[in-house]
Design brief:
The protein is mainly alpha-helical. The chain has 6 helices and 2 strands. A hairpin with a 6-residue loop joins strand 1 and strand 2. The radius of gyration is 27 Å and the shape is elongated.
């Protein structure tokens, strides 16, 4: 196909038909772009439209561990360490005013805004 941005309707239909065959055969968008000879951006554009019509399965981007993307093992620390990673934020306990009764209480994290006595009331537990 030509590299021009402007394509005839026949060329667009040919690209889309070839894309439907390749994507239903399990190709990634990157592989399909190389095989058809068009940019990956164009393939992404057509894939969105074809997916909306139900003509191709969900997106296959070709991103695999080892292709510059972090794998699960590289995120968890050493190769043999499969423990849960530590928290991203360490919050300090802080005195806050309860949103229900306005009493001051020690909040463990910024999202804790209702004191424990108020959370034990029937109204809180039933969502009233």
């Amino acid at each position: 196909m030509k590299a021009s941005r402007f394509r005839t309707p026949a060329e667009r239909e040919a690209i889309q038909a070839r894309l439907i065959v390749l994507m239903n055969a399990g190709s990634t968008q990157g592989d399909a772009a190389e095989k058809i000879g068009v940019s990956r951006d164009l393939v992404t554009y057509y894939c969105k439209r074809l997916r909306a019509k139900g003509l191709i399965p969900r997106a296959r981007t070709g991103r695999r561990p080892g292709d510059g993307w972090a794998s699960k093992s590289s995120l968890s620390g050493s190769d043999g360490d499969h423990s849960k990673p530590g928290p991203l934020h360490v919050y300090e306990a802080k005195r806050r005013a309860c949103l229900s009764c306005s009493d001051r209480f020690w909040s463990e994290w910024p999202g804790e805004r209702v004191c424990k006595p108020c959370k034990q009331t029937l109204a809180w537990r039933t969502g009233a």
